């Protein structure tokens, strides 16, 4: 039997704010002691996008920071939404990731419902309606860019739900550094190679001049022919070469006790996964 | 049933008062980042610092070293609030001159350390926001490192890291110089070449993970011959 909604229960969308007052009191008492409430990891980013003659070029740096310590030296900030629509995310890392994944699902469902390829405007509208519903508590700023039947478009959406439609956009903590490069050299209808270089230079400005951005430049070039995802398009910084050897000989770590418990297991499958140690 | 808590009355939501009145006070301090490191050897001392000066998410300068030469046998590294670093080093220079003129001799590293402690404690209730590390040679010509907290507590060490990446560097030095947490390793005394190589390597690692550390590394090597300076480039992002 179908369960219908109890007509006396209010339908609450978004977050439940019942505990906000309790949390505020707890946080103020915590800050007096030695413990701090855990803060959400922000990406402290530089993301940029521009419209060129053949399509859209999106760019992002690859550093994720936890306060002022680098948490990830090579994270991906350009997310897939639809075959020809990609999105760069800045702000709280988890919020940007979840928002774009929800958009990707919704776009797939929409495509199946309407039988049409998606429009960039549709993605932007759904994204802004969702972020507005969360009243800025979802701290993700995104740049949505792509090519659809009406042409190449670029939008930016802010955490509270406002959006801008412009020929070039930058967001994140390095936005000021990146937009200065765009303001200097942007021209409408640029050639693709020149546009790639310009976006790369804008992200590089963020990487060098902003402490929250760093490591490599990722680019995503979207044209009506297809998408080129250029991960690690440029690596303007290199890790210094260490001169000493820091490997430990076996036996350096003291073994205090040893307990061996034989388990009867069979090896079914063996696979090697390389770790990113650089 | 309708929850009575979230409603202040028919058609009204209760006001949520998250914090009290918000007052934005002027802060006399700023944090300008930077890391300093000092290592003492048998007959040498090394004081090293990065050269990045930052504030918030921006960089003020990529060439602002934090090691200051005090005498022919003493170098001080200061990180924290740059304004207080500059004033403190000026005050130390003046006091060194006064001592020289009254006592007709240069201050020794130990004497400078003791003096710095009293200068810092003199401002106990409006401290100099500076993390100091003094590196130099003592009267016997052996390497000496003195590390301080902002209000003047100090002690003599073999090695010490201070500043923004200190928490990343200190455990590594404890392991490589102090041979801590290692079994069956020969405790070889630290040579000057090994120490310089170690200092360069630890700063390369600190620049990877600390956003405030980078640009270049300034190393001052203090020996009885004098003070030798080297500059090595670091990551600029």
Overall description:
Chain A: InterPro entries: Ntn_hydrolases_N (IPR029055), Proteasome_bsu_C (IPR024689), Proteasome_bsu_CS (IPR016050), Proteasome_sua/b (IPR001353), Proteasome_suB-type (IPR023333). Chain A: Component of the proteasome complex. Chain A: One of its GO terms (biological process) is proteolysis involved in protein catabolic process. Chain A: It holds the Pfam family Proteasome. Chain A: Belongs to the peptidase T1B family. The complex is a heterodimer of chains A (278) and B (237). With 278 residues, chain A is α+β, with helices and mostly antiparallel strands. Chain A has a domain at 46-234: Aminohydrolase, N-terminal nucleophile (Ntn) domain (Glutamine Phosphoribosylpyrophosphate, subunit 1, domain 1), CATH 3.60.20.10. Helix content of chain A is 28%, strand content 24%. Chain A has five helices and twelve strands. Chain A has helices at residues 20-32, 93-114, 120-133, 175-185, 192-209; strands spanning 47-51, 55-60, 64-66, 69-72, 78-82, 85-91, 140-148, 151-157, 163-165, 168-171, 217-223, 227-234. Chain A has a five-stranded antiparallel β-sheet, with helices on one face. In chain A, strands 5-6-7-8-9 form a five-stranded antiparallel β-sheet, with helices on one face. Chain A has a two-stranded antiparallel ribbon with strand order 3-4. Chain B is of the alpha+beta class and 237 residues long. Chain B has a single domain (35-234), classed as 4-Layer Sandwich (Glutamine Phosphoribosylpyrophosphate, subunit 1, domain 1). Chain B contains four helices and 14 strands. In chain B, the strands form four sheets. Chain B has a five-stranded antiparallel β-sheet. In chain B, strands 7-8-9-10-11 form a five-stranded antiparallel β-sheet, covered by helices on one side. The A-B interface holds A 8, 10, 17-18, 20-21, 24, 28, 44, 63, 65, 68-70, 73, 173-174, 207-215, 236-244, 246, 248-249, 251-254 and B 1-3, 5-6, 16-19, 54, 56-59, 164, 176, 181-185, 194, 197-198, 200-201, 204-205, 207-212, 232-237.
């Amino acid at each position: 039997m179908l369960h219908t909604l109890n007509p006396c229960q209010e339908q609450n969308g978004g977050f439940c704010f019942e505990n906000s007052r309790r949390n505020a009191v707890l946080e103020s008492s915590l800050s007096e002691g030695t413990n701090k409430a855990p803060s959400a990891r922000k990406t402290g980013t530089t993301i940029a996008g521009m419209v060129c003659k053949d399509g859209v070029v999106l760019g992002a740096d690859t550093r994720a920071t936890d306060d002022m310590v680098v948490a990830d030296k090579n994270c991906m900030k350009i997310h897939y939404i639809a075959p020809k629509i990609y999105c760069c995310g800045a702000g709280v890392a988890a919020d940007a990731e979840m928002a774009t994944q929800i958009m990707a699902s919704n776009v797939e469902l929409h495509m199946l419902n309407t039988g049409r390829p998606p429009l960039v405007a549709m993605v932007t509208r759904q994204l802004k309606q969702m972020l507005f519903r969360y009243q800025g508590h979802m701290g993700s700023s995104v740049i949505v860019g792509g090519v659809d039947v009406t042409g190449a478009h670029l939008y930016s959406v802010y955490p509270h739900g406002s959006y801008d439609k412009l020929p070039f956009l930058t967001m994140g903590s390095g936005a000021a550094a990146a937009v200065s490069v765009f303001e200097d050299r942007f021209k409408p209808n640029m050639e693709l190679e020149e546009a790639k270089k310009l976006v790369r230079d804008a992200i590089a400005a963020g990487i060098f001049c902003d402490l929250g951005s760093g490591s490599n430049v990722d680019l995503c070039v979207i044209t009506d022919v297809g998408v080129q995802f250029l991960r690690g398009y440029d690596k303007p910084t290199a890790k210094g070469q260490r001169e000493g050897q820091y490997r430990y000989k076996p036996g350096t770590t003291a073994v205090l006790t040893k307990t061996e418990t034989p388990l009867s297991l069979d090896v079914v499958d063996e696979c090697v996964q390389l770790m990113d140690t650089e | 049933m309708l929850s009575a808590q979230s409603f202040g009355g028919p058609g009204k939501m209760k006001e949520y008062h998250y914090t009290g009145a918000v007052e934005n006070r002027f802060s006399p301090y700023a944090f300008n980042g930077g890391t300093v490191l000092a290592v003492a050897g048998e007959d040498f001392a090394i004081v090293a610092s990065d050269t990045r000066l930052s504030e918030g998410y921006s960089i003020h300068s990529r060439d602002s070293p934090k090691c200051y030469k005090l005498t022919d046998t003493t170098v001080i590294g200061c990180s924290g609030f740059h304004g207080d670093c500059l004033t403190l080093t000026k005050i130390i220079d003046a006091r060194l001159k006064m001592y020289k003129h009254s006592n007709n001799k240069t201050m020794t590293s130990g004497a400078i350390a003791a003096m710095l402690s009293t200068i810092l404690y003199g401002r106990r209730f409006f401290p100099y926001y500076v993390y100091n590390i003094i590196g130099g040679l003592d009267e016997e010509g052996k390497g000496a490192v003195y590390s301080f907290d902002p209000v003047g507590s100090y002690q003599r060490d073999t090695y010490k890291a201070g500043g923004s990446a200190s928490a990343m560097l200190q455990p590594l030095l404890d392991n490589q110089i102090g041979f801590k947490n290692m079994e069956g390793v020969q405790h070889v005394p630290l040579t000057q070449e090994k120490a310089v190589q170690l200092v360069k390597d630890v700063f390369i690692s600190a620049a990877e993970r600390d956003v405030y550390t980078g640009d270049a590394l300034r190393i001052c090597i203090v020996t009885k011959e004098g003070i030798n300076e080297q500059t090595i480039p670091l990551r600029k992002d």
